[in-house]
Design a protein that fits this description.
The protein is built from ten helices and five strands, in the order αβαββααααααββαα. The chain has 205 residues and is mainly alpha-helical. It is elongated, with a radius of gyration of 27 Å. It starts with 15 loop residues before the first helix and ends with a helix.
Length: 205
């Protein structure tokens, strides 16, 4: 059996594909008639009392059936959790905590390094990787950086803004999508921190 639950029954969460493959549905009290129609294909769930009563819809019934489910209060949930904590040894996986807070810890040094790339030639290594991925002409996007470099959205968005501000990527071509607008040699120079030195040497010649 598969039970799929959500506290946000909007159309972008419960898609048509999901509804077609899960014809049997249960709805507790909902905040609006729109949410009721999203879950049950009809209104009414917004008028439930919220004390364990629910609507139950099966492929064989054209209208939802009102039923009474078990009601567990917040206090009862807290009592059960506290009992389990007091009478059992807890095991915490530190790797899970590190994975959750890793993105936040990385943001602080990244912010300071991005503020002064022009002064010391320092470019975040993720920028170099993103630029190399875009050398084949494919557009550089925030979602692409998240997927290919394993970054979170805040980090990928900051790096993307950095590349735009430094004119490393720019809208080019008929599609006007952001593509790498520097050469592979210039990327190598950025990676080695020698871009400014090369520019100074060209000026002297």
């Amino acid at each position: 059996h598969l039970v799929l639950a959500t506290q946000r029954p909007s159309v972008d969460v419960i898609s048509g594909t999901i509804k077609n493959n899960l014809p049997t549905r249960v709805a507790l009290t909902l905040s609006s008639i729109a949410d009721s129609r999203t879950v049950m294909d009809s209104g009414g769930a917004e008028k439930l009392l919220g004390h364990g009563d629910l609507f139950y819809l099966t492929p064989k019934s054209s209208l939802p059936i009102r039923m009474q489910g078990a009601l567990i209060t917040d206090q009862e949930i807290a009592d059960v959790v506290n009992y389990v904590k007091d009478h059992n040894e807890a095991y915490f996986d530190a790797s899970v905590k590190d994975a959750i807070f890793k993105e936040e810890e990385e943001e602080a040094p990244a912010a300071s390094s991005e503020k002064k790339p022009k002064n010391d030639g320092g470019v975040p290594p993720e920028v170099i990787k993103a630029l190399r991925l875009g050398l084949d002409g494919s557009p550089v996007t925030i979602s692409g950086m998240q997927r290919k470099l394993g970054l979170g959205f805040p980090r990928a968005a900051k790096l993307f803004d950095f590349m735009v501000e430094e004119h490393l990527i720019a809208p080019t071509g008929d599609d006007k999508k952001n593509r790498v607008c520097i050469t592979e040699a210039e990327i190598d120079a950025l990676e080695n921190g020698g871009a400014e030195d090369e520019n100074e040497g060209d000026g002297e010649e």
